[in-house]
């Protein structure tokens, strides 16, 4: 089972990524989506695929994030929060890095034309130019899904 944590899933890019993920049939995938508002929690629960589990986490507090990542054996953090507050990403990165090798971190923002951070924590960052398609391609590679069923 692959465990994915999506932060910022209720935003513009987050909604698109969830829609794309929801169209894939990947039985070995469990997706947790951070939410801040009740209406977003309801929307995540009611998503047609039933693939997503909403969670409430203070993304600026390292300890709850580290506990959540550890307890739920998160393999990939998909960071879609605002690029204006880069500090909000640090707890997720540090928590994931402390869990050992084989963990991945993906970050993107609608405020940027490029996806800058899409790599294993042990590899050099790669710049991507087509946000949506490259992000989904990178995610599929991380999930080892060559031919997802739509």
TrEMBL record:
Alphabetical list of InterPro entries matching this protein: Epimerase_deHydtase, NAD(P)-bd_dom_sf
UniProt-listed Pfam families: Epimerase (PF01370)
Superkingdom of the source species: Eukaryota
Signal peptide segment: none
Domain NAD-dependent epimerase/dehydratase as annotated: residue spans: 5-82
Sequence intervals crossing the membrane: none
Gene3D superfamilies linked to this entry: NAD(P)-binding Rossmann-like Domain
Protein name per UniProt: NAD-dependent epimerase/dehydratase domain-containing protein
Annotated organism of origin: Cryptococcus neoformans (strain H99 / ATCC 208821 / CBS 10515 / FGSC 9487) (Cryptococcus neoformans var. grubii serotype A)
